[in-house]
Amino acid sequence: MERYQVILAYDGAGFLGSQRQTTFPPDGRSRTRTVQGELERALQRIGWEGRSILLAGRTDTGTHASGQVAAFDLDWAHGTDELVKALNANLPQDMAVRSARKVTRDFHPRFDALSRRYRYRLFCQEGRDPLRERYAWRVWPEVTDLAPLADLWTGRHDFSAFGTPPRPGGGSVRTVFEAGWRRVEDDWIFEISADAFLYRMVRRLVFVQVAVGQGRLPVRQVLQALAQQAGCSHKLPAGLAPACGLALVEVCYDNLGS
């Protein structure tokens, strides 16, 4: 029996988030698809007898990933390349294992993670674009240059005005290692790396920055909210950037790769 780490990619549009649901309809059968549930079904088809896989983090309904990390214990007599092929043969078309490797038996993809990196994509266009909007947020009115806003987030801050702790009573201080906007043709792409994230933090940060870029919110109010000045978080406009533009792209570990 070995512990394996796999890197997952998935189109989040067809999933009710990454984690298997713990509540079920009255007939006892879950009618919702999750990333965890699909991977566990694929593993069962190749002989896995475990109760639950481990995931690096939670992604919301509609959020995509190219670098989600999962781990599980498996008695597998073949190589890791064969494991990737076997799992992909049993996974749905909107989900794939990109790579697999053996790791130590105490490896935990969530608790051992040193950092996570997310990417958010948006574009500015007045009319609907159904194909692009599956993977990006269509924003209108157009935004001004977003690049200078990314510098607001780097460093160690209390982000309680921009998200909620994943567990009741949890802390809201996080360290952002890198944050940046770049423009590719008419797309704006935001990337942010941190030691951890609050629930819906990236979507909230993007929403607030777009409000600044559209001239609806002064930068000073964002700075005041980040500095936790009394009452300032209530002056920020309510809302989240849509999940469709968000993707988990990398989880990093010490001496384990990502």
Instruction: Report the CATH topology name of the largest domain.
Output: Alpha-Beta Plaits
Structural shape: globular
For the secondary structure, the number of strands is 10
Low-confidence stretches: 23-29
CATH class of the largest domain: Alpha Beta
Structural class: alpha+beta
CATH architecture of the largest domain: 2-Layer Sandwich
- What is the H level of CATH, i.e. the homologous superfamily of the largest domain? Pseudouridine synthase I, catalytic domain, C-terminal subdomain
Helix content: 10-25%
Spell out the helices and strands N to C.
EHEEHEEEEEEHHE
Main sheet attributes: strand count, strand direction, barrel closure: 10 strands, mixed
Structural commentary:
This protein is an alpha+beta fold. The protein has two domains: 2-111, Pseudouridine synthase I, catalytic domain, N-terminal subdomain (Alpha-Beta Plaits, 2-Layer Sandwich); 115-251, Alpha-Beta Plaits. It has helices spanning 35-45, 80-90, 201-213, 219-226; strands at residues 2-10, 54-55, 64-74, 95-103, 115-124, 137-139, 155-158, 173-184, 187-194, 246-252. The radius of gyration is 20 Å and the shape is globular. The two termini are 22 Å apart.
